[in-house]
Amino acid sequence: MRRRDAIAGLGSLGVIVGAGALAVGGRSLLEDPPEESVEPIEIETIDAPGSESGAVTVPDPERVTVIDFFATWCTICEAEMPTLAEAEATTGEDVRFLSVTNEPVGRSLEAEDVAATWEEWDGAWLVGLDPNVELAERHDGLQYPTTVVLDGDGREHYYNQGTKELEELLAGIEAARTA
Questions:
Q1: pLDDT, tens only, 85-122
Q2: What does the pLDDT read at residue 2?
Q3: Phi and psi angles of residue 22, each rounded to the nearest 5 degrees, phi first
Q4: I need a surface site. Which of 29, 44, 130, 169 has the fewest CB within 10 A?
Q5: What does pTM read for this prediction?
Q6: Strands laid side by side in the 156-161 sheet
Q7: Tens digits of residue pLDDT in 8-62
Q8: Which of these, 152, 145, 151, lies nearest to 172 by C-alpha position?
Q9: What is d(CA 129, CA 41) in angstroms, rounded to the nearest whole number?
Q10: Which residues are within 8 A (CB) of 97 and not within 5 positions of it... i.e. 6 or more apart?
Q11: Positive/negative CA dihedral, 170, 171, 173, 174
């Protein structure tokens, strides 16, 4: 009887640990990125330091894309800006940095508010809007900050929620470059 209890307890512990990892990390540790390319999504960009009004396609088939999902109210997002800025400064033209918010721009805040926050945070790359949360849902970017590195086919080579290490981010960029 004790043996069955021990086995049941270990099984339950595995379920709890797996659920905890999913809740904290946002995705299953067993989940692999898709093997095939994904349909591109057009993201509206705004006028802000390092950014201009227009649109970009994600993934960009010509280069690696680093997507940073953020919110203007997120203090951890602000604290992560120096790491992103250093990574952006050390990569070349073959890497596009794009920070994306899915805040309700046009309702509770305006694009100018996002741009003001971007300037305050010393942002110097593209800022995009994801009002339908399509990009964030595709890349599990609903918790802030979340950073994802994609190759030209949209396959993920780096995924991180929360505080990131520069070396790990750069390794993800290099993995996407060589894919």
A1: 999 999 989 999 999 999 999 898 999 999 999 999 99
A2: 53
A3: -65, -40
A4: 29
A5: 0.79
A6: 54-58, 41-45, 126-129, 95-101, 64-69, 146-150, 156-161
A7: 444 443 433 343 344 444 443 334 544 566 789 999 999 999 999 999 999 999 9
A8: 151
A9: 12
A10: 66, 68, 84, 87, 88, 91, 125, 126
A11: positive
d(CA 67, CA 169): 11
Task: Give the per-residue pLDDT at 39.
Answer: 86
Handedness of CA 52, 56, 60, 65 (dihedral sign): positive
What pLDDT does residue 179 have?
86
Cα dihedral 42/115/146/20 (nearest 10): -120
Instruction: Identify whether the C-beta of residue 154 lies closer than 8 Å to the C-beta of residue 37.
Output: yes
Q: What is the 3-state secondary structure (H, E, C) of 44-85?
A: EECCECCECCEEEEECCCCCEEEEEECCCCCHHHHHHHHHHH
What stretches of 1-143 show up as alpha helix (H) in DSSP?
2-25, 75-90, 111-120, 134-138
